[in-house]
Amino acid sequence: MELRKDSYVTLNDGHKMPVIGFGTYAPQQLPKSLAEEGVKVALEVGYRHIDCAFIYGNEVEVGRAINQKIADGTVKREEVFYTGKLWSTFQAPDKVRPAVEKSLKDLQLDYIDLFIIHSPIELKPGDNPFPVDENGKLIYHNTDIRETWKALEECKDAGLVRSIGVSNFNKSQVELILNNPELKYKPVCNQVECHIYLNQSKLQEFLKSHDIVLVGYSVLGSSRDEKWIDQNSPVLLEDPVLKSLAEKLGRTPAQVAMRFLLQRGIVVLAKSFTPARIKQNFQVFDFQLSEDEMKTLEGLNKNMRYISTLQ
Fold this sequence. Notes:
- With about 300 residues, the protein is α/β, with parallel strands linked by helices.
- The protein is about 35% helix and about 15% strand.
- This is Rho crystallin.
């Protein structure tokens, strides 16, 4: 398929998701205004898919940027595809709709295009997003994920969200939802860590067979946030094979790493708050990797994760 700036994938419920999304997660110590400015630049450059989450703590700022760009005529609301996420302390069925409504209020939007379960791991319901016991260990909880899903289906029926999906789910967790006899809507996507060191080809094959899109995050490695990332892990964009291929093509390693996933039919989320880089990361539509180049990059897979699953 030819990839263009306005390329999208059609989800199994008929809605369309742009193939490149702008990620808005930033380590806590960074000012929230960075996400606001970043989203404005992204929309001006041509991104039409914005990925955020309750736990990022910046939906107010991200929503403000979207609304400002709608107000000044840069985009129309229906051109923007916004993804929000259900945090792990809100998986009890009675907490799902209030969580969606809280995001809508913070964003100042009438609907959310895609709302996904952030993680299959549930934490103890309550106001503390990371509940811990007296030993500092996270307190888990065990709502049946199918009940959570049912509550999300109701939010879709109510028009609060257009599409629903999951994130950080493995094959058997996705199957649990798919095999539920009461299932009304299949997940449209599974958003997972995906890059040249973790190419997720097996999971992608399984998802494809059920018409579920794989959305990749940390496609350029990761933000090296000390809270989540092993500081000794290799820096993906400094991979010698990736770098020499990028040099040969006259591209940045980031552009080649993204193009590799796009050509495999994966939706990619790119994250940067540097205007020049936001622009650069979107310039992946005017070149193509050959079959041999794709194979070379496939050979870099080492099933290595940057992110521990609860993120």
